[in-house]
Amino acid sequence: MTFLAYALSGADIPGGRTTDEPAASPARGHSHPGGRSDLVTDELTHLLFDRCLRDQVHRPWRGLAGRTEFGYRPGLTPRERMSLSYDRLRLVNGAADGVADLVTDPRRLAALHEWIGPLDGGLTTLASIHYNLFLGSLLDHDGDRRDLSAFTSLRRTGTFLCTELDHGNDVAAMQTVAVYDRASDEFVLHTPTPGARKFMPNTSLTGGPKSATVAARLLMDGQDQGVFLFLVPLSDENGHLPGVRVQRLPDRTGTPVDHSLTAFEHVRLPRTALLQGDHGRLAADGTLSSTLGNRRKRFLRSIGRVTMGKLCMSAGTLGMSRAALAIAVRYSHSRLIAGARPGERVPLAAHRSHHGRLLHGIALAYAMTFLHRRVVDRWVGHTAEDREEVERLVAVAKGWITWQAREIAVECRERCGAQGLFPANGIADLAQNIEGGITAEGDNLVIWVKAAGEMVFGHEAARPGRLGPLCPDRDLADPAALRDLLAEAEGIWQSRARTALREGPKGDPLARWNETSSAALEMVSAHARLQAADAFMAAADAAVDPTTGFLLRTLCRLFLLAQLAECTGDLLAEGLMTADQVRSLPKNRDAVLADLAPHMMTLVDGFGFPAEMLAGIPIADGRAVGGGHEGTADAP
To answer: Which of 49, 202, 228, 431 could pair covalently with 409 via S-S, beta carbons 3.0-4.6 A apart?
Structure first.
């Protein structure tokens, strides 16, 4: 037995279990009886959850996850589920310990979404809108000059109205207008066409009185000054206010939210409704001054909170994917099936066909988490000089994380079989809720296309510049060597994109981009995975406990082997891998899976979900829907 295999086998880990031991139910959240496994789990959690900032950033929200108020509620209608999400939003608000401080702290705000994502997809949507898009926009635009107490106390819920029915991501075509009336020193907000109705905001009467920040084209003396945000009261205890027209949309997939179409009929607003800042300020004499002469830049500054929204969407789906894995892995250890010998019973987790898929998901989830931490840190520390670069990184990470989260959730649901179809088991709705994160705050493909266009020539892929195949002494067992191969893959796709753009049809920009976009998007994908690998390797290097370090480095190697599998043809063609190295990839992957399989429970316990939360999920608690009292009685 090699030192690595010996270190990972659990032989020196009191309480550790090898695959030769009988399966034990992970009931009541205690998968390990104590000892060294608990030390490893604690360090994994420490590294995953912002290290020394863990208590400040994550602990309050983790506490919510263990409360019964956030558990599964059977038998509710869609309308009742919507109302429940608003009730839970108030519980979140009560735990915020300073709402304004929460809104202006990217780490805490993102962490909130991580922990509530698995609990209630509707709540996650409402929290993102109220705290980030609504309150965040108010605080970012001279917020200290407004009384926000009605919103921070949730006497009024905030929403955000930007996207229009006919225009979607094409904000340049926005038609909603706010006309400045000099005579009354007011704005007149109006929706000129049915296609200009605001699409999907939660503007119904469910949840109580609401206000909104509304994106509208500011017209002054007939001149288009660009798109700005306006604070608009929508409803009170008696219903929608005059001139506000709201039509509920049909139910969508996932946890229901009161999505609606919203129009305005010549609604008059005071001059204080305009959200002002350096990008646009209305003087007492009715003149508008701006440090940004470009209307597009004014708009982007107005909706600057969308970048933080991407981090919130990534975080919410990240929490959902980790929950799916925690549930599926625990079920795989408690679900026994017939073994190879007569009378033998073995857990699902004993089979490579089962644990291999889950381990690939775990490796992805760790990579996604470490990437998210790095990107949030970059956003917290960004400057005016690197803002555009960091915003692009946020967008790239959002696309990759949310797409991988969906892949993980679907796989975990399947690995739980029919039990995974029951919402009571906490996994059935996750994939559909993740779909919302894929589309919200910029559809993934759209924001990746934008990033791709910028990165073809505006970014230089960091190729290691290897002149030949991997050195034999590095081979495929070295995560650093695998990382360098992934960097080469990014460079290969960037080179192809540049060539395509140079050689594309002249005089036809769209046709030229069409020739370029496929390679450019592959470049973005490789870049996202490379950033995740770098964050993963840095976390592994930060481990203090040797076993924790071995687990993280081995898991990182599994992640890299999986990412390289689709690149081997290009790497072989470029002389960066040998045929023997390509042939050995499956064997290397199987060897890593064998090393990690006995430690799946430790790895998902590192996700830190409260025992109370897991105990409320039947298949995460050694039970099954139908084996207890999770169902409802037949109607008489």
So the answer is: 431
